[in-house]
Design goal:
about 250 residues, Alpha-Beta Plaits, alpha+beta, 8 strands, 8-stranded antiparallel β-barrel, 8 helices
Length: about 250
């Protein structure tokens, strides 16, 4: 029997604040104009790019998640990126200038996966596609992040499966006191499957059991919805490519 693969990647999780009505411009710039270079130069894979559904959180905002070749690979990438007087790779000066027209700031996390979490390649190879995702940040008591992820594996995944939710991301946030986890659920059936599960929060036995299991260690819990960008891998089934570009030259 083949042992399941262990996920040894590292991930960058970003919430990006958008200038005005430029969310579509930014998402295209991030996927088509950034990602193909990053795949080649950094071995960075696009895990996903989504627009935050404003009725569920801050707006206008975008969520990016990037898959890196472990912390050592990420360290090498950061070393190459933060160079020069502006702490920016000169090769990317044009890209950064263009991006500044579309975004005004953001908040990043470096997160590490639960060892059983699939990589983006593994999820896509199953044929899973979803234009809508549910995203959760659960803050827990200091030191409890790893145990909280184990509760996700043993309780939450099965609880939401009857509603068509697929757990594609389960991370703990680094450089904190092991007090935060991030979950990402792909919803192939879209918003109706979110509504069904949300309605059942207090009645579905599996969801009630999961919430009761996590409640002793959870200190805060926030779920939002994400809409996949046109070139998000969970929408297209592939990584962004140079052929996706429109009027952009490096």
């Amino acid at each position: 029997m083949t042992e399941p693969a262990i996920n040894t990647k590292a991930y960058i999780h970003e919430f990006i604040d958008i200038r005005g009505v430029n969310r579509g411009n930014y998402m295209h710039h991030m996927t088509a104009n950034w990602s193909p270079n990053a795949q080649e130069d950094r071995n960075q894979q696009c895990f996903g790019v989504w627009g935050v559904v404003g009725s569920t959180s801050a707006w206008p905002q975008v969520c990016n998640i990037w898959q890196e070749p472990g912390l050592d690979g990420l360290a090498a990438s950061l070393g190459n990126e933060t160079v020069g007087a502006d702490l920016q790779d000169p090769k990317l000066a044009k890209w950064w200038k263009e991006a500044s027209q579309f975004r005004r700031g953001g908040f990043d996390r470096i997160v590490l996966p639960a060892p059983w979490m699939p990589t983006v390649e593994e999820s896509l190879q199953t044929g899973l596609r979803a234009e809508v995702c549910a995203h959760e940040i659960i803050k827990v008591q200091p030191g409890e992040a790893i145990q909280a992820l184990e509760l996700v594996r043993t309780s939450a995944a099965a609880a939401y499966e009857p509603f068509g939710w697929h757990l594609v991301g389960a991370w703990r946030t680094t450089m904190r006191d092991d007090d935060e986890i991030v979950l990402l659920w792909a919803l192939p059936d879209g918003y109706p499957s979110w509504a069904a599960a949300e309605t059942a929060q207090g009645s579905a036995p599996g969801i009630v059991a999961w919430r009761n299991a996590i409640r002793p260690v959870a200190t805060d819990w926030h779920r939002i919805l994400l809409a996949a960008a046109p070139l998000c891998p969970f929408r297209t089934g592939r990584q962004p490519q140079r052929d996706d570009r429109v009027d952009w030259e490096e």
